[in-house]
């Protein structure tokens, strides 16, 4: 029973660490993830700065 509780506690802490790192609300170091319309007409979900670097546009 002690091993089960240890496993359960480790699982909970591992998930909370994963959620903290990946649950960032759709933002990255290069800005929020946006639906970018590239000059070629393609639409991609990329960070706003990458969209700007590639000459794309997005709506706020």
Describe, in plain words, how this protein is organized in 3D:
The chain has a domain at 25-60. It has a three-stranded antiparallel sheet. The chain is built from two helices and three strands; from the N terminus they run αβββα. The model has no long low-confidence stretch (mean pLDDT 80). The chain has 60 residues and is an alpha+beta fold. A hairpin with a 5-residue loop joins strand 2 and strand 3 (43-47). Residues 1-19 form the signal peptide.
Structural class by SSE content: alpha+beta
Percentage of β-strand residues: 15-25%
Radius of gyration: 19 Å
Classify the oligomer. Answer: single chain
Strand order of the largest sheet: 1-2-3
Average pLDDT confidence is 80
Shape: rod-shaped
How far is it from the N-terminal to the C-terminal residue, by CA? Answer: 52 Å
Name the poorly predicted regions: none
Major sheet size, sense and barrel closure: 3 strands, antiparallel
Order of helices and strands: HEEEH
The helix content, as a percent range, equals: 40-55%
Tally of helical segments: 2
Could you give the count of β-strands? 3
Signal peptide: 1-19
Keywords: Signal
